[in-house]
Amino acid sequence: MLAIEVEFLMGRAVAARWEGRDRAEWPPHPQRLFSALVATHFDLDLGPKSEAALRWLETLPAPELRADPDPSYRTTHIHWVPINDETVKVEKGKVDFRHVLERRDRKERFFPAAVPNDSVVVYQWPSAPGVEEHREALSRLVEGLSYLGHSSSPVRACL
Fold first, then answer.
1. Cα 135 from Cα 52, distance rounded (Å)
2. d(CA 82, CA 110)
């Protein structure tokens, strides 16, 4: 058996559903967990054993989930956020005295949140052949996980 326990330290999970960016995803999809583990692998430069553990993990079937079945949801508001990756176009010979944030375009963003009564989610695989070979690397990966979903959803995770 393999189980990954994730506790949302702020008591809420900020993550948008793929089919509706203004609605919260609860519980966080296993693919979201896997993507967060991949990001942790690269952020912490955990090496080939960690990569092998991730490759093994992606071969497993979808995990069973244990999570609050009826969380409350925070009311979602529209936020207009400056776009970071677009360059500011300056017309030749003209000076723009506006602040740099005022010169950038803004895009509609949502930060939906689920607020469960129990902020712990468990992803479990009743059968995980080969787990012992990867247990140490998986443990380092999982314990290095800092958030799941939006960066405003810090977590504590353990194997």
1. 11
2. 13
Predicted TM-score (pTM) of the model is 0.80
* pLDDT single digits (tens) 71-120: 999 877 777 676 665 455 556 667 666 776 666 676 777 788 999 999 99
Angle, vertex CA 83, rays to CA 113 and CA 145, nearest 5? 45
List the alpha helices (DSSP H) in the chain: 30-43, 48-57, 100-103, 131-144
What's 153's DSSP letter? -
Residue 48 structure tokens:
């080939």
* Tokens describing residue 149: 């979903």
The first and second tokens of residue 129, run together, are 């052949």
Residue found under tokens 């207009």: 80
Exposed, middle or buried, 111 (CB in 10 Å: 0-12/13-18/19+)? Answer: buried
- Could you write out the DSSP letters of every residue in 102-139? HHS-EEEE---EEE-SS-EEEEEES--TTHHHHHHHHH
